[in-house]
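Design review, sub-item: ligand-bound model
Attendees: FS, YL, KQ
YL presented the inputs for the D-mannose complex:
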Amino acid sequence: MEMTLRWYGEAYDTVKLWQIRQIPGVRGVITTLYNKQAGELWTQEEIKALKASVEKEEMHISGIESVNVSDDIKVGDGNRDEHIENYIKTLENLGKEDIHMVCYNFMPVFDWTRSELARKRPDGSTVLAYTQEAIDAINPEEMFSTIRGEMNGTVMPGWEPERLAHVKELFDRYSDVDEKKLFDNLVYFLKAIMPVCNKYDIKMAIHPDDPAWSVFGLPRIINNEPNILKMMKAVDDVHNGVTFCSGSYGTSLDNDLPHMIRALEGRIHFAHVRNLKFISPTNFEEAAHLSSDGSFDMYEIVRALYETGFSGPIRPDHGRMIWGEQAMPGYGLYDRALGAAYINGLWEAIEKNAKRNA
Ligand code: DNO
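KQ shared the predicted structure:
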């Protein structure tokens, strides 16, 4: 594995590359052209400039999170084919710039959903949290304005104001999209992009639905082991793989995370590692990465990645907001740096133990 950190680019991130570079073992970042709307083409010049901005700090790009998929592609209408053409050209331009891992999601309307972005924990840190009761009480069309006030002035991924200004229209477009249709549209998209992925060895890593069940009546298709296996079988190519996100699959207590990692051996191209603390099965908050702070056994998650030969980029995921930091909720420097150090420690211990016992 390669330890990395997510970075939103010079114009958007409160965290600076020189700070990331001081986290032990981190030389790679996962980044994006954050100003791009889904469906737009990324030119080679733009990608080159992004690369240069990272490399001047003696770091490199380990993958893209995300090249977003447009609603036209997800719904299967409008400008779907033009957007797929742009996606293919974008992948080609990324391949030419030697970038080989792309994370994306196929969630309708909203990317991740949380009901709170700053729940206070007993130690004074704040975290993202979810309660089903709170979500049920929100009118989805007002979801954005409800949580906007907690974004610390940042633009959060998947919550682009330009898109969410039309949220009612978006909901209407999905009104006849059920799970089968969404799945078929995903397969259509994957089949169209596989040739370029093969040509440039670009590993596509679909991000799971977060939370792993339907919210606001919208369909969910990437939420459990049988569904991912179905997706991988429908387009059986190593470049059609997944982002294993413990905090997203882990929202459902029915998902056995180490078991899933083993079932997906060879097709996990990117790992997001974080911990959640459950108050009830539909009320959880994000915790520190340390196992004992939450509900997951992080040792078993990292061990499963190690034992299945995971060699892609890994990143600590959402951190708590600690030490007075003001940043994008989940994406401050301090707690993610602690997370990286902890995961590195687990990995080193697991690796040395495995070698000793070999
Ligand atoms: C949230 C992230 C997601 C993820 C996208 C991938 O913090 O994990 O926004 O990047 O779903 O496309």
